[in-house]
Amino acid sequence: MSEHATDLDGPDLEWDCYCSEHPIVIRGLTNRFGDFAVHEDLDLDVRRGEILGVVGGSGTGKSVLMRSIIGLQFPDEGCITVFGKDITGAEPDEQIGVRNRWGVLFQGGALFSTLTVAENVQVPLKQYYPELSQKLLNEISRYKTVLTGLPEDACSKYPSELSGGMKKRAGLARALALDPELLFLDEPTAGLDPIGAAKFDELLRELTDTLGLTVFLITHDLDTLYAICDRIAVLADKKVVAVGTIPELLATDHPWIQEYFNGPRSRAAAQTHEAGKALDKQAAEGS
Ligand SMILES: Nc1ncnc2c1ncn2[C@@H]1O[C@H](COP(=O)(O)OP(=O)(O)OP(=O)(O)O)[C@@H](O)[C@H]1O
Ligand SMILES: [Mg+2]
Q1: All residues with CB under 5 Å from ion ligand 2
Q2: Rg, C-alpha atoms of the chain
Q3: Beta bridge partners of 233
């Protein structure tokens, strides 16, 4: 494979994707729609236990990349391994061993509107464990719902009865239904007010750390990137052009990265993040 992404503090990527300990390894990925190539020879590793933020301009192929990893988009070239299993071109049945090890929150939430929150959470459970009793399904869905910070009575509510933030949490509860090791989130805080978004970020960080998750997080939200992401992958020019922490990305000279992370909105997000850290420190010293 030709050029690899600039993994700013990672290993030399000239090794076999099947030997990797990383939960997700992508090499030479090309996706085309007709003559239009969204990705060309794209490489990326997602490391165990990290929240990897995935950023890029609108239409750069973030959602298509996520769809490729979870087997909803058949790549034209390249290989993707998830937990060491090559899922490129695998039929859903063949993926079954890995598919129940991930949970997905699609862009827009996509809850079933005719099902209650509990019933939404039960959909993947019924799919993978058809032998579970209704009593157990109810218990698990209640546990997952409460885990995401929703009140217990949200279980019996329909999506139309929930606020935007509650819908996101319900979507997260459904994504966590199968106790996944990997979580895919496509713009989970889009449309939330800043306080709701910050609470969602906090919840995600806490769940990641306590449940030992690895998270592939597509976001435009600079506050999210500063607050909870361990590394950030930047999609541009049909590839992942760089992967690293924000200071590491700032040290690159890619024009989109410079514009995005050095712009006024990014500086404001950085200041908010620093101010938050200072307050946390004060609180810790005072207690
Ligand atoms: N099923 C499809 N058929 C044809 N073109 C598609 C299809 N899905 C995506 N595309 C095209 O692929 C490109 C990348 O789409 P994608 O949805 O991945 O962008 P994105 O980076 O997620 O954008 P946004 O930030 O707006 O969500 C776009 O130009 C889109 O029009
Ligand atoms: Mg998208």
Answers
A1: 63, 107
A2: 19
A3: 54, 243
CB of residue 33 inside a 6 A radius of ligand 1:
yes
pLDDT digits (tens, 9 = 90+) for 181-210: 999 999 998 888 888 899 999 999 999 999
Cα–Cα distance between 95 and 59 in angstroms, integer?
28
The C-alpha atoms of residue 1 and residue 77 are separated, in whole angstroms, by 11
pTM attached to this predicted model: 0.89
Atom of ligand 1 nearest to the CA of 60: 21
Tell me the best of 29, 33, 54, 217 to mutate to test the pocket of ligand 1, counting ligand atoms within 8 Å of each CB and taking the most. 33
Give yes or no for residue 42 CB within 6 A of ligand 1. Answer: no
Assess contact for 218 and 61: CB atoms under 8 A. no
Per DSSP, the chain holds a count of helices (H) and strands (E) of: 10, 11
pLDDT tens per residue, range 137-163: 999 999 999 999 999 999 999 999 998
